[in-house]
Write a structure and sequence with these properties.
Layout lengths: L1 E4 L4 H10 L5 E3 L17 H18 L5 E11 L20 H12 L6 E11 L4 E12 L15 E3 L6 H4 L1 H7 L1 H15 L3
Parallel strand pairs: 1-2, 1-3
Antiparallel strand pairs: 3-4, 4-5, 5-6
The chain binds inosinic acid.
The site of inosinic acid has 15 residues, from strand 3.
């Protein structure tokens, strides 16, 4: 079976393909001829995952192809900032997206705030011609007072997962990939794909 993953990030596509049960071949956006960025106009992370999946599904349907589509969207929600940067995580400090500027803005926004609880969340939206399924993963933690560590990307240098004293960027991929929001959401989706035919 072929499954379209609504991403053109080759690293992400490879990572997801490696997790899939044998028999499912993953195709990325460039494989199906989408080269433009899909507009992410949702006001929540879940909405954006659905918008991406539907965009790709409709694009294929207009070409006479009915295929199963999977889309993901993630973000960081900080309690003391009422859930910001949330759906705007990638471009929190403006466009083009810049991880260092985003981290600086987040540290400034929190300043000396002592309540620094936050969570990363991933929503996966899986759809085919007759059904859609949502899988969510989260990891709870706190925002550090300064950026630390060189692994990962995005807000990893600021995020200390619950139960650890180091940031994701210090802990590295092997720990992050067992407890992260993305890993949890994908595990749920994979369990579903192993048990169900789309
Ligand atoms: P995406 O939906 O996976 O592209 O994530 C959107 C944005 O959320 C990224 O550009 C990052 O700023 C932030 N983000 C999502 N997941 C992570 C993560 O695992 N570590 C750090 N930042 C992340």
């Amino acid at each position: 079976m072929e499954l379209v993953f609504a991403s053109s990030n080759q690293n992400k596509i490879k990572e997801v393909q490696a997790m899939l049960p044998p028999g499912i071949r993953l195709m990325g956006l460039t494989d199906i001829g989408i080269t433009q960025e899909i507009p992410e106009t949702g006001t929540t992370i879940a909405e954006n995952a659905e918008i991406k999946a539907r965009y790709v599904y409709d694009y294929l349907k207009n070409k006479g192809k009915e295929m199963a589509v999977l889309a993901d969207d993630s973000g960081l929600e900080v309690k003391a900032l009422n859930g910001a940067p949330g759906v705007y995580s990638a471009r929190y400090a403006g466009t083009p997206k810049n991880d260092i500027a985003n981290n600086t803005k987040l540290l400034e926004a929190l300043n000396t705030e002592t309540k620094r609880e936050a969570r990363f969340v991933t929503v996966l939206y899986l759809m085919n011609n007759n059904s859609s399924h949502i899988f969510e993963g989260e990891v709870l933690g706190t925002i550090a007072y300064e950026a630390k560590g060189n692994f990962g990307f995005g807000y990893d240098p600021l995020f200390i997962p619950r139960g650890y004293r180091s940031t994701f960027a210090e802990l590295g991929d092997s720990i992050k990939n067992t407890i992260s929001h993305r890993a949890t959401a994908f595990k749920k989706c994979l369990m579903f794909l192993e048990k169900n035919t789309l």
